[in-house]
Write a structure and sequence with these properties.
mainly alpha; 0% strand
Length: 475
């Protein structure tokens, strides 16, 4: 790069524009960290990224090149596939919607995420490295605040999930607890100094304490998956021996945990769940209420569930409802695996209610939280099965390709970069993707969490591709 061109790109005006974009992005992340998807009906939190992104494009469009933007080619094609399949749901007669309603849903649940991902990618790819580092640092600070606040929530908070600030109890509060956990786990792999490793591992304690304070069980399962993941895909010495030792330790720990959980409340009695899962799963979803004590103490359940009385054992309501909804959704998928059904995961509960009124009534869930409006809850507590139903197998494969591409490229960056902090950023994102994927098997994710998640992965992907060959690779 010539001196004159470099001076022009580092001009005070251009630098001031970068600062403004950074401030807008930080404001957006702060609002997401507070649990606010919008400030009013007009001003959405993502608007701060849209405004900042527009200013950024106007200031930097001359720097864009086909060589740089090739990294967005496959993500773009994947989202185009999902968008097209989403638009095809307009022709689904099960729950008719106007084309404008379908288009708004596509914009909210598909296109909007890609825009946030792309703007974050461009920001990390073109803005000065120091400002990108500030944004990373600001996100880290927000994670620390979230953990501290989650732990410090008073007993006045009602319900089994405790969430800070303006988050709602129903939100799956995963990003803000799993991301710092991913950083702590990754730091133990990236840095060679044992004191630094111990420091990072000690950071897992407040993360775990926050998860226990929140009360969501799937976070604990995700944490186990995140802990195992880097042992498998990261590079280190004596890998075969370490993996063998890890799997033996996991086996011993699993046996101990199985027997220890027998003395825990039903919500955490995993031994009881393992022993009886096969019988429950092989029961029709409309009949699973016979295992739910709530069906015999006030909860309105189907006649198929209650006509023969309680089963020989009971199952904790929350996990039983998830099993019933997952099987009910999976059976709808198997009717036509290629068919995209509806855009919006949180429309599935209502959609399946209509779907099973037409056929296979025995496949509906044994209860509904809102009279006869939903098939169980408003959404199956399995984000992966939900995506398959929403967009069909082809749409889900497009999503898998998108995530797989990010994982591969960021993972390669995390293993080849010469700089420990860069490896930490890359590995943390890979571990986070593993944790989110595991946790998605047990719950769905609301937009107020998904939107900052796409900001984070777009930011790391852009940073990884920018510095894939060293800190000056894109100049």
């Amino acid at each position: 790069m010539s001196y004159s061109k470099q001076s022009k790109e580092n001009s005070p005006l251009l630098y001031s524009m970068q600062i403004l974009v950074l401030l807008l992005f930080c404001t957006g992340m702060l609002l997401y960290a507070l649990g606010l998807a919008s400030l009013s009906k007009v001003l959405q939190t993502q608007s701060f990224f849209h405004i900042g992104g527009l200013l950024f494009v106007l200031a930097f469009w001359k720097k864009f090149s086909k060589q740089d933007l090739k990294f967005l080619r496959i993500p773009f094609l994947c989202f185009v596939v999902v968008i097209c399949l989403g638009l095809l749901t307009y022709f689904n007669p099960i729950m008719p919607r106007t084309f404008s309603e379908v288009f708004r849903s596509v914009n909210t649940h598909i296109l909007g995420y890609f825009i946030l991902f792309t703007l974050s990618f461009l920001f990390a790819f073109y803005v000065q490295r120091a400002l990108v580092a500030v944004f990373f640092g600001f996100i880290a600070l927000l994670c620390i605040i979230e953990i501290v606040q989650t732990i410090n929530i008073t007993q006045e908070t009602q319900g089994f999930r405790r969430v800070p600030f303006y988050f709602k109890e129903v939100f799956t509060y995963n990003l803000w607890l799993l991301l710092p956990s991913a950083v702590c786990i990754s730091g133990a792999f990236v840095f060679k100094n044992w004191w630094v490793r111990i420091l990072f591992l000690s950071g897992l304690y407040p993360c775990l304490e926050a998860m226990l304070a929140n009360g969501e069980r799937s976070f604990l399962v995700a944490l186990v998956g995140m802990f195992i993941a880097p042992f498998i895909f990261y590079t280190y010495r004596f890998k075969v021996f370490v993996l063998a030792t890890l799997f033996v330790a996991m086996g011993v720990g699993g046996i101990f945990g199985y027997h220890y959980s027998k003395n825990l409340p039903d919500r955490y009695n995993f031994a009881h769940m393992i022993d009886n899962f096969s019988e429950v799963w092989n029961t029709q979803p409309s009949e699973m209420g016979k295992y739910d004590a709530w069906c015999f103490s006030g909860l309105k359940c189907t006649n198929e569930s209650t006509k023969d009385g309680k089963a020989s054992f009971t199952w904790e309501h929350s996990s039983l409802a998830r099993i019933a909804m997952t099987k009910s959704t999976l059976l709808a998928v198997l009717d036509n695996p290629l068919k995209p059904h509806i855009v919006g995961v949180f429309e599935i509960g209502q959609y399946l209610r209509h779907y099973y009124e037409l056929k296979n009534l025995e496949n509906r869930v044994y209860m509904s939280i809102s009279g006869d409006s939903f098939n169980g809850y408003n959404a199956p507590h399995n984000f992966i099965i939900s995506l398959i139903l929403s967009y069909g197998i082809l749409g889900f494969l497009a999503i898998v390709v998108f995530v797989g591409l990010l994982f591969k490229n960021i993972r390669d960056f995390s293993t080849t970069s010469r700089y420990a902090l860069d490896r930490l950023i890359g590995l943390s994102c890979c571990v986070l993707l593993c944790g989110i994927s595991v946790q998605c098997l047990f719950d769905s994710i609301y937009g107020v969490i998904l939107q900052p998640f796409f900001v984070v992965i777009g930011l790391v992907y852009g940073y990884s591709m920018r510095y894939r060959n060293g800190p000056l690779s894109n100049l």
